[in-house]
Amino acid sequence: MGIRSFLSKPVASWIVKQQAQWSSRPGATQQQVFHHLIQRARGTAFGKDHDFAGIKDHQTFKDRVPVRDYEGLSPYIQRVVKGEENVLWPGKPVYFAKTSGTTSGIKYIPITKDSIPFHIAAARDALLNYVHRTGKSEFLDKKLMFLSGSPEIDQKNGIYIGRLSGIVNHHVPGYLRTNQMPSYETNCIDDWETKLDTIVKETLSQDMSLISGIPPWVQMYFDRIQAKTGKTISEVFPNFNLFVYGGVNFEPYKARLFDSIGKKIDSIETYPASEGFIAFQDATAEEGLLLLLNSGVFYEFIPVEQYFDANPPRLTIEEVELGKNYAVIMSTNAGLWGYSIGDTVKFVSKHPYRIVVTGRIKHFISAFGEHVIGEEVEKAMKEALALNPGVEVTEFTVAPYVSSEKGQSYHEWLVEFSKAPADLSKFAKDLDVAMIRLNIYYDDLITGNILKSLVLTPLQAGAFVDYMKSLGKLGGQNKAPRLSNDRAFADGLSVFKHDKQRMN
After folding, report:
1. Is residue 6 classed as helix, strand or coil in its secondary structure?
2. Rounded distance, CA 61 to CA 158, Å?
3. How confident is the model at residue 305, as a pLDDT?
4. What is the 3-state secondary structure (H, E, C) of 188-249?
5. Whole-number mean pLDDT of the chain?
6. Residue 427, phi then psi, degrees to nearest 5
7. Cα separation of 414 and 498, whole Å?
8. Where along the chain do its domains lie?
9. Which pLDDT does position 198 carry in this prediction?
10. Which range (101-105, 340-344, 406-410, 494-498) has the least confidence?
11. pLDDT value at position 102?
12. Residues 377 and 482: beta-carbon distance below 8 Å
């Protein structure tokens, strides 16, 4: 047992005890965070504009601070980008995490000296929870692969600018630097495919124990290794026993990833965001991710069905209910206030508070009033795969097709199979039956002959990679939308249709 493995166990025990203390007092923990945030930001431009000095409780906060998305908060953020101090948070941010917005172009999410430690601590604690729960720590003594964006950072008006994964890369603890992969130089390669080929060359001879990244891009890495060696990943890396992932639902990718690996291994799900590290999987046997209530973020939750109301309810952690979908609203020690991150979650436990990510508030299909969400299409796909053993899906997306003729509109499922079903019609029927069961409005539309059964469009191998590449969004933190309420993404993918006929 190496020194890292040996020391991790007492540290993990201490971290879990600390975690138990704040998670057993969720309301008090969040109140403490709330009052600290308000007190610290009273003298900022935002704090003065919204009379933070007069905010004593959550109700007055709601009265004075409206819910905003990035566009709503952008006038303040642009002042910070130009170098102005004390706008959203005391001083200037240390970093801006640069992300791609759908309506606002490039987004600059502030990360401050107060918030960055929580990003790092949460990633560390996810691993230490695993060590504590399983007793497995030997992986820390071998090579750890973090498949991420470039760590290169620019500077503007005294603030560093980069991708979140690149920023975090600069804060990897020194004791892990010596076994971190890939090398800094390789990680800085801009072109994703060139970078991936270089990572393969660099890692083939290494004793890899942990691999971390967004599942579809990790799958690309695995595919390159298998093409080069003709072996499964576990044959190439016999000590690879832990996969850490986040950013997307693992289920649609799980079968193919484990098939590539050649054996079942442990996994840890995380929920990092540029706005804050929100949650991680703290227990292997429990559903959901532990919501981090003491990490410099005050949370509010809006029921999804009321999100677009003029004055929707904004619930605290103690007011949420199990099994309901909520939009996540954050106020943070990076200076985001009443900020709608755009994600939706569902609580699966209150002791402690655990969540599952169910989709994006703007990623839904409601062209006919059905309001289908990401969680539903992913469950339908999981059920169809269970009914069709041997079928594997690389990626898929769903979009509406609106016809002027009654009963001729439908939902189109564009699916890239790695192992296609022998009977595409049956697979499409299984998907449709699952969707009818999962969404009562979809059921009504099918029964009422407003919609016809879904259309399944198989895509060529590599369709999603090729299309994302054409958009300049290949690799890193980029993700294909699971579903859309328009046809922009679907129509772009249509050029990659498989030769076989669409099935419905």
Report:
1. helix
2. 31
3. 85
4. CCCCHHHHHHHHHHHHCCCCEEEEECCHHHHHHHHHHHHHHHCCCHHHHCCCCCEEEEECCC
5. 90
6. -65, -45
7. 10
8. 1-295+334-339+347-356, 364-496
9. 95
10. 101-105
11. 43
12. yes
CA pair distance 417, 427, nearest whole angstrom: 12
Q: DSSP H helical segments within 230-373, as ranges?
A: 233-236, 251-261
Q: Please give the sequence-ordered ranges of beta strands (E in DSSP) within 59-163, or none if there are none.
A: 95-100, 106-111, 143-146, 154-156, 159-162
Q: Evaluate whether 170 touches 114 at the Cβ level (below 8 Å).
A: no
Q: Which two tokens stand for residue 314?
A: 């904004």
User: What is the C-alpha to C-alpha distance for residues 68 and 415, in angstroms, rounded to an integer?
Assistant: 34
In the numeric block, which tokens belong to residue 35? 């009052």
Give the HSE-up count for residue 76: Cα atoms under 13 Å, Cβ half-sphere: 25
Question: For residue 209, with 0-12 CB atoms within 10 Å meaning exposed, 13-18 middle and 19 or more buried, which class applies?
Answer: buried
Q: What angle do CA 361, 362, 364 make, to 5 degrees?
A: 90
Q: Are 380 and 435 in contact (CB under 8 A)?
A: yes
Span 3-14, mean pLDDT?
88
- The topology (CATH level 3) of 1-295+334-339+347-356 is Rossmann fold (3.40.50)
Q: Which residue, chain included where needed, has tokens 């399983």?
A: 134
pTM of this prediction exceeds 0.70: yes
Residues contacting 85, CB < 8 A, separation 6+: 91, 92
**What is the SS3 string spanning 353-413?**
EEEEEEEECCEEECCCCCCEEHHHHHHHHHHHHHHCCCCEEEEEEEEEECCCCCCCEEEEE
